[in-house]
Amino acid sequence: MQGLKHIHLIGICGTAMASLAGMLQAQGHKVTGSDAAAYPPMSDLLVSLGIPISEPYAEKNLQPNPDLVVVGNAISRGNVELEYVMEHRLPFISMAALIHDEFLRGRDSLVVAGTHGKTTTTSMLAWIFEVASRRRPELSPSFLIGGVAENFGTSFRVRGTKPFILEGDEYDTAFFDKGPKFLHYFPQAAILTHVEFDHADIYADLASVKTAFKRFVNLVPRNGVVVAFDGSANVTECVARAFCRVERYGLAESSHWRVTNLRHEDEGSRWSLLRGGEPFAELYLPMAGEHNALNATAAAALAATQGIDAASIVEALASFRSVKRRLEVIAETRGVTIIDDFAHHPTAIRETLRALRAKYPSRRLIAVLEPRSNTLRRNVFEKELVDSLALADSVILASVFKSESIPVEERLHPESVVAGLKSAGKPAELLPDVDAIVAKIVKEMQPGDVVAILSNGGFGGIYEKLPAAIDAAAGALSL
Fold first, then answer.
1. For the chain, which end, N or C, has fewer CB atoms within 10 Å of the first or last residue's CB respectively?
2. pTM of the model as a whole
C-alpha cells in the first residue's frame, strides 16, 4: 500500500484479524473494526492498543468510508457491512493477502502449519529467535501468532529485520477466496506438525485436507527446508514430493531430529535431542505433555536450520511461558485448579487431557466441553470424541454451540457422547447451560480437583463465573 490509510476490519476480534489490526496500526495506519461479539484475549489486546471495536455490525461503522476494508474469513454474504462494501464499491481484501502484500515482501517467511500444535510451536519458534537475537540482533523476529504468546504479551510484532514467523492456517481465506490462508505466505522454511481431517465445514474429506498441505509444501523453494513430524503417514504423504530438503522429527529411530529419554518432572518435560544420530542438546520445557515436547523439538529443529545455536535454543525453551488458552491455569481457588484450553478437535482434547494427567497424576480430572468448533459440532468424530474425553475422571458436556446452523444429519448429538462415556464406565452428564454446569461443579467439587474447560470460544462466561461461584460457595460455608 502507498501512504497511510484508514483500514477497517470486518470481524476484527478473530485471533489473526486482531493481530493484523495491531500490525497495521504499528505501520501508522488508522485502524477501525467491527464484530458481532468481543471476548478475551483478543478484545483485551485491541482495547490495550486503543483500537475501537464497533458492535454489532452496521453500515454506520463504515462511515466515513475507509480507504480499504479487510474481510475476515468468518464473514459471508448477507453481512450488513459486507453488503455495504460491495454496493458502494469500496476496495476490499482478505487478511492473508494483505499480510503478504504489506509485511512479507523482502522478508524470510517461516511458517508453522499443521492440524495441531501450530500456535504453541509458532510461539516457541518466535521466542527462540528472540533469545538468539540478544547475541545476533539481525535475528530479532517479526511474528504473527494465533494466540497471545505469554513471553511477548502479544500475538504480533513487526520489526525491520528479515525473519517473519507466522502461524499458517489451513482454514479458508475469505468468502471470495476459498483456498487456505497459508497459500498466501510463500515460506522460505516451514514446519508441518500433523495432518488430520479437520474443518469439516470446508473440507469434504481427509484427501482434500492432504491436498491443501501438499500445495503448501510445494511453495517452499529448493533452497528452503521443511521440518516435518515423523509419526504420521499423512505427513509423510504430504512431504513426499517436496522440492526442498525435508528433515523429520519425532520419537522414531529413523527421525533426523529424534526425541530420546523423555521424562516429565517438576511440572515440565526433559529430553535428549539427537540430530542425525548425534547429540544436539539436553532440553527442558516448563510444560507437560509429549505433544509439547514434540512441538518444542520442531521449533528447535527449524531454528537450527536457520543457523541458531543450540545454547540459544536451550535457553529459550527453558524460559518458554506458553500461550494464552493453551493449558492455561486461569484460577486456583479453594484447592481447585481451573484450566482453560482452546479445544477444537478430538486429538487436541486427547493430548490436553494426557498432559494434565502427567502434570496432576494423583488429582481428580473433570473435563467440561463446549462443542463449538465447526468440526466438534459435527458427528464425524463422535467415537473419537468419546475416546478422548474418557481420559478424564468425569465429563460434563454443554449443548452444541449454535446447533441450528448444522444440518441435522451432520450434527453432533451430545447425548450419544454421554451414553458412550457411561458405557465406558465414565461419569458423564449433559447440561443445558453454563449456569447449570457451574452449579454442578460447585456442588460436587473437592479440594485437589482439576477442572479442564475445553472450548474455542467465550463459553458463556464460564471462565469468570466458575471461580467466582467456588469462592462464593466457600465463603457461605465459612459463615
1. C
2. 0.84
